[in-house]
Write a structure and sequence with these properties.
- By secondary structure, this protein is of the alpha/beta class.
- Helices cover about 35% and strands about 25% of the residues.
- It contains 6 helices and 9 strands.
- Helix 2 crosses helix 3.
- The longest helix has 24 residues.
- The chain is globular and about 45 Å long.
- The protein starts with 6 loop residues before the first helix and ends with a strand.
Length: about 220
């Protein structure tokens, strides 16, 4: 399907872009699996964890070729948004971008731990306020109306239970306007912690966010 990408033909096809983005998220999950298998020692720092995943795997030419990322997607980190004031953790362009420079995906990365998980100042709250809301408040753009978040789980926890705590905080905050709370998904084979949610942005346009929870607690060696 990817040898005939054409933004002029497909830009209004939500089903097409959901499917292609899910393939990309599967590849990124494969990068995470490779990182875990090589037992990297990670600092308990969001940007440094992201940089290992990005530099050693997602942007590594050998890995890109092995996972067949190379012909279809190219990623960049810490990129200023073109249409707003945000600085994205990871921006991913595809062949569509050569037709329309606004056609790209955004991935926001956040740490998750066991501290104050139901409170307004813990990392779960930041996952909402400085993650999900950056999409719904249009701090980040959403050309395809779909983007993604990666939660780096830096302490041992019940990930599914913690996801429900994030949902409860969304209800408590009353924002973002949510039409489907974070819900278990199954498009990535043999990967437990995959989810999606749907929301309205500040213009009342529908928006879908995928959530991947990457368990890295055993790799955290420097605090």
């Amino acid at each position: 399907m990817f040898d005939k990408l054409d933004a002029a033909v497909y830009r209004d096809s939500g089903e097409f872009y959901d499917g292609s983005f899910e393939v990309l998220l599967s590849k990124i999950t494969d990068c995470y699996r490779l990182m875990k298998s090589q037992e990297f020692c990670l600092e308990n720092d969001e940007c440094k964890i992201r940089d290992v995943l990005f530099l050693q795997y997602l942007n590594n030419n050998k890995i890109r070729e092995k996972l067949q990322i190379q012909p279809f997607w190219l990623s960049f980190r810490e990129v200023l948004e073109d249409q707003s004031v945000g600085r994205t953790d990871i921006r991913i362009i595809s062949p569509d971008t050569f037709y329309d420079t606004g056609a790209y995906y955004i991935m926001e990365c956040k740490r998750l731990d066991n501290t104050n998980t139901s409170g307004t100042s813990g990392l779960n709250a930041k996952y909402i306020k400085e993650g999900i809301c950056r999409f719904t408040e249009k701090y980040y753009s959403s050309y395809y109306r779909i983007n993604a978040m990666i939660g780096f789980v830096v302490e041992k926890m019940d990930v599914h239970a913690n996801t429900e705590k994030i949902n409860n905080l969304i209800k408590q905050f009353g924002k973002p306007i949510t039409t489907k709370y974070i819900t278990k998904d199954n498009f990535i084979q043999n990967f437990e912690y995959q989810y999606h949610s749907t929301h309205f942005d500040s213009d009342r346009d529908a928006l879908k966010i995928y959530h991947l929870m990457f368990e890295v607690s055993e790799n955290i060696g420097i605090n």
